[in-house]
């Protein structure tokens, strides 16, 4: 199966004047019939992605479009095929939307997209539309708690919207006090916050938890309710399957590139990352020697975005 040619598929994020997003239902007789997807279709030989999307949306919906910026490209393996779903924003469209191939259509408010049953390649697209593309992992606090909290405030003010509070080997009482202050800061900035590894601490502060890969096999089920994020660090497909089993909301995969903190580790590279991306529908952050300048390439390989310490923590070399 791994040597099978990958089918290139393009799809568009089409919005109406109220911000609702168009979904199309796959018709009977097609594979994955009945599931909802972002409209589009197969890219033919010699076509550009933009040209293919314009043709497909004209044929399927009867509209003419101006193709906008790339959103995400998701490589995905199905039992009967491999595909790469290249999703673009539709900057503008003209005409009357109609299902010219008999497909049902739905204009969906963004916050309800996740309630529609979708093919596995489309699920990360919803996360890319709605969730942060940067995931800050905090460094261990230095000698000054105030300095650490000030750096966190600067990161939040600079646009970080998802944070993992992590402080290996920090003294428990000190860490509890820092988490209390950090959670307050994140809530003031309306930022999604998780704590590394400590499920009890997550429950105490009513926040999410980011699990270490070694914790996953011991958990019989999801450790927090649905309204609290559960994430995990994964390095192998077996670990990803464990994250799926307990109902993680997203995962972090790496290291994609070499890092000073793991000088002896062999990095995955983007090809290795994409190979793991093919086998899960979970949103995935890429980690390991990456910064904001890699966000576009990360999205082109199916990543939700970048997770990092140095790239997002002020004053870190």
UniProtKB/TrEMBL annotation:
The lineage of its organism: Bacteria, Pseudomonadati, Pseudomonadota, Gammaproteobacteria, Lysobacterales. It catalyses: 8-oxo-dGTP + H2O = 8-oxo-dGMP + diphosphate + H(+); 8-oxo-GTP + H2O = 8-oxo-GMP + diphosphate + H(+). Its cofactor is Mg(2+). It is an enzyme of class 3 (hydrolase). This is 8-oxo-dGTP diphosphatase. PANTHER family: 8-OXO-DGTP DIPHOSPHATASE, NUDIX HYDROLASE FAMILY PROTEIN. Keywords: DNA damage, DNA repair, DNA replication, Hydrolase, Magnesium, Metal-binding, Mutator protein. Pfam families: NUDIX_4 (PF14815), TMP-TENI (PF02581). PROSITE patterns: NUDIX, NUDIX_BOX. Belongs to the Nudix hydrolase family. Gene3D superfamilies: Aldolase class I, Nucleoside Triphosphate Pyrophosphohydrolase. Residues 5-131 form the Nudix hydrolase domain. Its EC number is 3.6.1.55.
């Amino acid at each position: 199966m791994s040597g099978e040619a990958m089918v290139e598929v393009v799809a568009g994020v089409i919005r109406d004047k109220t911000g609702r997003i168009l979904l199309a239902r796959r018709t009977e007789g097609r594979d994955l019939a009945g599931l909802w997807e972002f409209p589009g279709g197969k890219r033919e030989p010699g076509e550009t992605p933009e040209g293919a999307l314009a043709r497909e949306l004209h044929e399927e919906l009867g509209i003419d479009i101006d193709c906008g910026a790339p959103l995400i490209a998701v490589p995905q393996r199905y039992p009967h095929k491999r595909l790469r779903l290249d999703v673009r924003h539709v900057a503008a469209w003209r005409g009357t939307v109609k299902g010219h191939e008999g497909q049902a259509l739905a204009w969906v408010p963004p916050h309800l997209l996740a309630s529609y049953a979708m093919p596995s390649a489309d699920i990360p697209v919803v996360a890319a539309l709605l969730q942060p593309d940067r995931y800050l992992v905090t460094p261990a606090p230095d000698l000054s708690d105030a300095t650490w909290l000030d750096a966190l405030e600067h990161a939040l003010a600079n646009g970080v919207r998802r944070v993992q509070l992590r402080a290996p080997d920090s003294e428990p009482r000190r860490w509890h006090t820092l988490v209390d202050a950090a959670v307050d800061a994140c809530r003031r900035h309306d930022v999604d916050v998780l704590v590394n590894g400590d499920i009890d601490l997550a429950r105490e502060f009513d926040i999410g938890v980011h699990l270490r890969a070694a914790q996953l096999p011991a958990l019989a089920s999801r450790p927090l309710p649905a309204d609290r994020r559960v994430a995990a660090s994964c390095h192998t497909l077996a670990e990803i399957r464990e994250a799926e089993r307990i109902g993680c909301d997203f995962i972090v995969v790496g290291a994609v590139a070499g890092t000073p903190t793991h000088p002896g580790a062999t990095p995955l590279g983007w090809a290795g990352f994409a190979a793991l991306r093919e086998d899960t529908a979970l949103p995935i952050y890429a980690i390991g020697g990456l910064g904001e300048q890699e966000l576009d390439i990360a999205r082109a390989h199916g990543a939700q975005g970048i997770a990092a310490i140095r790239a997002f923590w002020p004053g870190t070399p």
